[in-house]
Design brief:
heterodimer, A: ABC transporter involved in vitamin B12 uptake, BtuC, two-stranded antiparallel ribbon, 14 helices, B: 307 residues, alpha/beta, Rossmann fold, 2 domains, six-stranded parallel sheet, four-stranded parallel sheet, 12 strands, 49% helix, elongated
Chain lengths: 323, 307
């Protein structure tokens, strides 16, 4: 491996990976039972939902956009899927399949709305998705009459705690999503266009590309990942609730940014996002295991988010120097 | 802004209609109707109003637990309209006191329920310290359900407390009740951690605490939503039957868990009747009775034998 490639790796995704490994090292030394198979399984379970949402968010942020609505849309998707899955008139396999479609469809519809409105009327995504945050929350409260849905089919509920050699099933789903996201962005024309538009929208427009199509599609993809995350949430906790998901958008954005994706677009990848989500999950888990109190934990987590982004600014400069 | 405006509009319309009807008008200011607990409370009050038929009820709810503005506006609109009674579950026990002061000054009877107004703030606003309050004893409830668990586990057992929002009054009171149990039964409190009333966060916290303290025997949760997440964590760890869980609120999902034997008990504070009870107390005062201080509403432990 030549020097340039190595330095590129260290400064890129591998760089954040090193932060993750350092954190794990610290917690292994100071945290009781941190470095055990059982605890690794737990951390993987805990980051699955955020990872899936954050992959969708990566598409949107790569285009210089943002989606603040993911938390309440997630809640809406769980209730839509929950209403279908508890329908006793259908065979269980049909109810589960339709529930997954309901979750996915709900998420994609919200994403389509976000994308279309912000593109057709040139409204900042911040505003449109803030509106959607409220619309989805109101809608889910209306639909559910503010009640939690439970009593899912037993066969569905047990899936949530299934693990293969310590790897939770729901985490394997999120790894698949990360992989699909990575391949799409890296090896398809569609993905390369996302980077091109994120880097220089005007240049992409002048070379005759339909920018609007790509942007709207990115929001639909984000909505779809939220729909999938909703199903994972139901697998993990066996409830669908109209009040869940508060603040999930911030966790997803944090994972994307810690993972090295630039808020102004054009730079980053779902692999980095996965590592970003893992850093947040490890922090959350490890700080508790070393016995840190609630408030101090919040301070430290916030500080690490800022630190990661500060390091990121140096990273960009350093990698330029090394080239 | 928009929701505040709509809420005001609704209050105005209702109030005009009500004043025209000449029945006494009761303004009910609720906390977040997104919370199942308050939703059933509001329904209970509506049902009571419909059955009673001697007064007009105008309920107002908020969109989130922390939306203090909407509550303040609702109280002020009720004052402007000159309702006969305001029944208030404050979102902030200090922030609502000046509005209460204005209502009392305008000669409107204010009945405080669910969460107590802050004593210092009351005194600072020249209101009596023992301002009328109708509500459950949160501390008593969590103490009772904590004891129920401690009886089953035995003295000196290892336990966790999963707390509600730091700073929320009912979270503090419930923790105080659990702490009374801990002291009385000499329980070994391994950790007391917040999960902000949320299922997912409680699931994460419980899973992580189980890693640190695999030998825990009991968990006391400050509400049932968190108990759901805790039970799921125990289930995922394959420890159902080895760890007892108690909660607070008696929501449907937890009743199911108790029936399945995955959860030991919860506390019913009779939410659906709580607002109705407060209105009844208000009418006793309007009828000439002198009442003040804390009028306790019942709390009861609910366990498998109740189903």
């Amino acid at each position: 491996m030549n020097k340039k490639r190595l330095s590129y790796l260290l400064m890129g995704e591998a760089g954040i990976g090193i932060i993750l490994i350092l954190l794990c090292g610290v917690f292994t030394v100071f945290g009781r039972n941190f470095a055990t198979g059982g605890n690794m399984t737990n951390i993987l379970t805990q980051i699955s939902i955020n990872t899936v949402i954050a992959v969708g968010m990566t598409f949107v942020i790569l285009l210089g956009g943002i989606d603040l609505s993911v938390g309440s849309v997630l809640s809406l998707c769980t209730i839509l899927a929950g209403l279908v899955i508890t329908n006793k008139d259908m065979p269980v396999w049909l109810a589960i399949s339709l529930a997954i479609l309901a979750g996915l469809g709900g998420g994609m519809a919200c994403g389509l709305f976000n994308g279309l409105v912000s593109e057709i009327w040139k409204i900042p995504a911040f505003v449109v998705t803030l509106g959607m945050l409220n619309m989805a929350r109101g809608a889910v409260l209306l639909i559910s009459d503010s009640r939690t849905i439970f009593n899912f089919p037993r066969s569905f509920n047990v899936l949530g705690s299934v693990t293969f050699w310590g790897v939770p099933l729901i985490f394997t789903f999120s790894v698949v999503i990360v992989f699909i996201g990575y391949v799409t962005l890296r090896f398809t024309v569609f993905g390369r266009m996302i980077y091109a538009i994120g880097n220089n929208e005007e240049a992409a427009r002048l070379s005759g590309h339909n920018i609007r199509f790509y942007k709207v599609t990115a929001y639909v993809i984000c909505g779809a990942t939220v729909g999938i995350a909703a199903i994972l949430y139901m697998l993990r906790l066996n409830i669908a609730s109209p009040i869940l998901g508060n603040g999930f958008e911030l966790n997803a954005i944090a994972a994307v940014v810690i993972g090295g994706t630039s808020m102004s677009g054009g730079k980053g990848s779902p692999i980095g996002t996965l590592i970003g989500a893992a850093i947040m999950g490890v922090l959350n888990n490890g700080l508790l295991l070393i016995g840190m109190g609630d408030f101090a934990r919040q301070v430290v987590t916030g500080f690490i988010i800022v630190l990661a982004v500060v390091l990121d600014t140096y990273r960009a400069g350093l990698s330029r120097m090394l080239e | 802004m928009r929701k505040t405006f709509l809420a005001s509009l609704a209050v105005l319309l209702f109030a005009f209609a009500a004043v025209a009807g000449e029945k006494p008008v009761v303004g009910l200011v609720m906390k977040s109707l997104a919370n199942e607990f308050f939703k059933t409370m509001e329904e209970g009050a509506r049902k009571f109003a419909a059955e009673d038929g001697t007064f007009t009820l105008i309920p107002v709810g908020m969109n989130s637990e922390t939306d203090i503005d909407t509550q303040i506006n609702a109280v002020e609109n009720f004052v402007t309209q000159g309702v006969d009674m305001i029944v208030l579950a404050p979102a902030d026990s200090v922030g609502l006191v000046p509005s209460v002061k204005r209502a009392v000054g305008a000669g409107i009877l204010v009945v405080n329920f669910d969460v107590t107004l802050d004593k210092e703030a009351l005194v600072a606003n020249d209101l009596p310290e023992d301002f009328l309050f109708v509500g459950p004893d949160n501390e008593e409830g969590s103490y009772l359900v904590g004891n129920f668990m401690a009886e089953k586990l035995g003295r000196g057992s290892k336990v966790f407390i999963i707390e509600g929002n730091p700073g929320a009054d009912n979270a503090k009171q419930r923790k105080a009740g659990f702490m009374k149990t801990v002291n009385e039964y000499g329980l070994d409190l391994l950790s007391s951690t917040t999960a902000h009333w949320e299922t997912e966060e409680a699931n994460t916290v419980m899973t992580n605490l189980l890693t640190r303290y695999p030998d825990v025997k009991g968990v006391m949760c400050a509400n049932d939503s968190m108990a759901v997440g805790v039970v799921r964590a125990i289930e995922a760890a394959g420890k159902i039957g080895q760890i007892e869980v108690v909660g607070f609120d008696n929501i449907g999902a937890c009743q199911e868990l108790i029936k399945e034997g995955k959860m030991l008990a919860t506390v019913d504070q009779f939410g659906p009747e709580m607002a109705a009870n407060a209105i009844k107390v208000g009418f006793r005062i309007l009828g000439g009775e002198k009442l003040s201080g804390w009028i306790r509403t019942p709390v009861q432990v609910v366990s498998a034998k109740d189903f």
